[in-house]
Every structure is written in C-alpha cells, then in structure tokens.
Specification:
Pfam families: AP_endonuc_2. Belongs to the hyi family. It catalyses: 3-hydroxypyruvate = 2-hydroxy-3-oxopropanoate. It is an enzyme of class 5 (isomerase). 47% of the residues are buried. The longest helix is centred in the middle third of the chain and has 25 residues. Strand 1, helix 1 and strand 2 form a beta-alpha-beta unit. The two termini are 31 Å apart. The protein has a single domain, classed as Divalent-metal-dependent TIM barrel enzymes (TIM Barrel). It is of the alpha/beta class. It is globular, with a radius of gyration of 18 Å. The protein contains nine helices and eight strands.
Length: 290
C-alpha cells in the first residue's frame, strides 16, 4: 500500500506569513510537495506560478470565487439568480487553474439565501446547482480539469450552506452523471454531520477526488486533542487504495512548522512519497475558506 500524499492548505497554514508567495516558500521548506489554496485571485497567476515553481511545489486544488462576501455569499453554484456570476467565476478559476497547472477546482455550492427556509428552497437550489454543474463539467472537460463538490457542515461552521452531507453531494453527482465531477471529502465536516467515518469512507471513496483533514471539534492539527483517531483513518485510506491528495486544512494551534510533527512522524514511518504525475498538468506554475 502506497503512503498517502499530503498538500498544505495555504489559506490555513502559515498564517503568520503575509501573502501566498511567502507561504509557498514555507510549505516547500517544510517538506510539502503539493499545496492547495481557496482563493488565489488576489495574486497574478504568473507570480504564483513562479513562486510555486521556485519552491518546487505543485498546486492541486483551488476554489471557485466566493461571490460577494460583504453580502454573505460563500460560493454561487446553487444560488438562484446568480447563475451568470457563477459562470464568470468559473471562467476565472479555469484561467488560474491552467496558469498554475492545477487539476482540480472546488465548485462551491453557496448558502441558502438570507431569510429563506432551507426546506422551502431546497428543490429550486438543487435545480440551479444541477444546471450549473452540467455547464461546469463541459467547461472543465475541455481543459482536462476535475470539478469537486464539498459538503460543509451546517452544525458549527456554516449553518446556511446548501450542501452539507456526503449523501446529498453523492446524489447530486449521480444526477449530473459526469465523470469529471467528483466528491471532496473533508473529514472534519463529515464527522460533525454524520460520523460513521469508516462506513462513509468505504462507501464514497470511489467517487472522492480529494481529502482534507482537521481534528474535531477544534479544527486543529490531526495530532491535537479531539474525537478523531487519525492514525486509524490514514491507515483506512491506505487500505482502501486512496491515491489522491490529503489536504491539511486546519488551524495551527501555534507555530505551523512545529505543529507539523504529526506529519513528519507519518513520513518517518511510511516514507515521503514523490508526487506522481497522475496525468496532471505540469506546474507552470484571505484565510478561512470552509
């Protein structure tokens, strides 16, 4: 069984460093070979590509733009009346992905509109989401890119988020029926919403394109106190044959590098895998995303 491959989420790690170029350098110096970032759009893609190349890093995941955050938006994929803005954001994300050699884009579903009842608007939002996802699948296929759907927990992190369980996301993926759309498994969110991690991982892993980790409930390092037994979960992912990346999307409790002792221990025990090409593009390459 091959060891897992980890990516540093630069929207969360190294918060003491200003700007993505500095965080890219820190990730490379810490032993990472891959990184992910929620919204890279404040930096020119060429500058990020150069910084990633100089740090010896591959960018493996970005998000579509969140929309108007001042108005409470956190993604637009399922938001009625925002279809045009979602498609504009998708085009921007694709431009960045191409420039950065990034193979995956998280297609953010967005929130139930303020003042609306979740149950009352669920059917309409799903119709909008399906329409946008079919459009996105076609756009992404032209560039050999993969779109990801991430359920975000509505108990703690974002009570208004539309997509909140793996079951809901898998059902939507089945309705869309496009092979270049997959599931993004953030173990933090899955544990809070449903638990049953062993069963859910075994059931949904065949359609998972990316994994993210953080301890529950504090969202700290996997080695921090909490509910989850990460040595067991990492072994489970290995046993089930997971070949993608595991994103470190957590809030460091102190210095980021010191807090990576859990990962250095994993590498010491299992080896430090080289990032395989897996058919990805060659890298020409604001915290608090969910």
């Amino acid at each position: 069984m091959a060891p897992l491959r980890f990516s540093a989420n630069l929207s969360w790690l190294f918060p003491e460093l200003p700007g993505l170029p500095a965080r890219l350098r820190a990730a490379g110096s810490s032993g990472f070979e891959a990184v992910e970032v929620a919204w890279p759009y404040a930096e020119p893609p060429e500058a990020l590509a150069r910084a990633a190349r100089e740090a010896g890093l591959r960018l493996v995941l970005i998000n579509t733009p969140p929309g108007d955050q001042e108005k409470g938006e956190m993604g637009l994929g399922a938001v009625p009346g925002r279809q045009a803005a979602f498609r504009e954001g998708l085009e921007q994300a694709v431009r960045y992905a191409k420039a950065l050699g990034c193979p995956r884009i998280h297609l953010m579903a967005g929130r139930v509109p303020q003042g609306a009842d979740r149950i009352a608007v669920k059917a309409e939002m799903e119709i909008v989401f399906l329409e946008n996802l079919r459009h996105a699948a076609g756009v992404l296929a032209e560039e050999d890119l993969v779109g990801l759907l991430e359920p975000i927990n509505t108990r703690i992190t974002d009570p208004q988020y539309f997509l909140d369980t793996p079951q809901q996301a898998a059902a939507i993926l089945q309705k869309v029926g496009r092979p270049n759309l997959q599931l993004q498994m953030d173990i933090f969110h899955w544990q809070i919403m449903d638990g049953n991690l062993t069963g859910n991982i075994q059931e949904f892993l065949p359609i998972v394109g990316h994994v993210q980790v953080a301890q529950v409930p504090g969202r700290g390092e996997p080695s921090s106190p909490g509910e989850l037994n990460f040595p067991y979960l990492f072994q489970l992912l290995e046993d089930e044959g997971y070949k993608g990346f595991v994103g470190c999307e957590y809030q460091p409790r102190g210095d980021t590098v010191e807090g990576l002792s859990w990962l250095r221990s994993y590498w010491d025990r299992r080896g430090h895998p080289e990032v395989a090409s897996e058919g990805l593009h060659t890298t020409h390459m604001p915290p608090d995303s969910e």
